[in-house]
Design goal:
alpha/beta; Rossmann fold; 6-phosphogluconate dehydrogenase C-terminal fold; 2 domains; six-stranded parallel sheet; three-stranded mixed sheet; 13% strand
Length: 301
């Protein structure tokens, strides 16, 4: 489908996109562009990319599609470095976890060429980072949200969507504002909470004893605290207003739970726990029923 794809950032997200396209036979050549020479060399060694470059001039020559898979705060700087070498036919997309700030950066840099930028966000990840964490099926059965701009030609949006579908993903669309409100609640707040809990435990005088007895429940709840601190710092700040609103609502919930606990209100606690259990079960059942990985019969592999 693509003669040449450029991956800016060859870690977990960008590397898995590259491997997904390779597995689907969808790209003639995949090129890595990365600030870390070590990561570039490793991506080349692992076969994630076919060629590796540290500067965009060589990397972008003849590119059909560019994926920016880097911390969102770097979006503007990366686009500035790409712009002089960006051909009129090249489509640029991103994998950032916030969208309003990314779109603002893209508009500021690309200006009249904003039509070439199709914002996106794959809803997938692992607790490990870097090229060694990349896997070809990371996106299989997972959502990818695109936030098309009014200036985007439908053909460009369709090409980006098809690239993700070829990686096994299920493509949805939200406006940048809708995206950031939704993910403040279901992604950004959970990451903040996981980081906060592990940091709190780690700072206690008897942290070693506590971690010694932490088991599967603690591991499951805090898994996402193994994610990149740099990336999640940028996401938290980029979506600060929506995240603050969700954090305030969660603090109110905690205060309510504390009051029930202090009052030894067993029925009150059980009511909250029961409602949460039912909601989670319904969510899991809906996911399992509706979000099956694409099959060959659907024509997406």
């Amino acid at each position: 489908m693509f003669d040449k794809v450029v991956i800016v950032g060859v870690g977990l997200i960008g590397g898995s996109f590259a491997l997904g396209l390779k597995a689907a036979g969808a790209a003639g050549t995949i090129v890595g562009l990365e600030r870390s020479g070590e990561a570039l060399a490793r991506a080349l060694q692992l076969g994630i990319v076919d060629h590796a470059y540290a500067t965009p001039e060589e990397a972008l020559h003849g590119a059909d599609l560019v994926l920016i898979a880097a911390p969102v705060a770097q979006t503007g700087r990366i686009l500035e470095s790409l712009l002089p070498w960006l051909a009129p036919h090249t489509i640029v997309t991103d994998a950032g976890s916030t969208k309003a700030d990314v779109v603002a950066a893209a508009r500021s840099v690309l200006k009249a060429r904003i039509a070439q930028f199709v914002p996106g966000h794959p809803i997938a990840g692992r607790e490990s980072n870097g090229p060694d964490a990349a896997i070809p099926d990371l996106y299989r059965g997972k959502k990818v949200v695109l936030s098309p701009l009014p200036e985007n030609p439908q053909a460009a949006v369709d090409k980006v969507a098809e690239a993700w579908r070829l990686c096994g993903a299920i493509v949805h669309q939200l406006t940048p504002g809708e995206h950031d409100k939704v993910f403040a609640a279901v992604s950004h707040l959970p990451h903040l909470l996981a980081y906060a809990l592990v940091d709190d435990i780690a700072n206690k005088a008897h942290a070693g004893l506590l971690f010694q007895y932490a088991a599967s429940g603690f591991r499951d709840f805090t898994r996402i605290a193994g994610s990149s601190p740099e990336m999640w710092r940028d996401i938290s700040l980029a979506n600060r207003e929506a995240l603050l609103g969700e954090l305030d609502a969660y603090l109110a919930q905690l205060h309510g739970l504390r009051a029930r606990l202090a009052a030894a209100d067993g029925p009150g606690l059980e009511a909250v726990y029961g409602n949460a259990q039912r909601a989670r079960r319904a969510w899991i059942e809906a996911i399992e029923a509706a979000e099956k990985p694409p099959t060959q019969e659907s024509g997406t592999e």
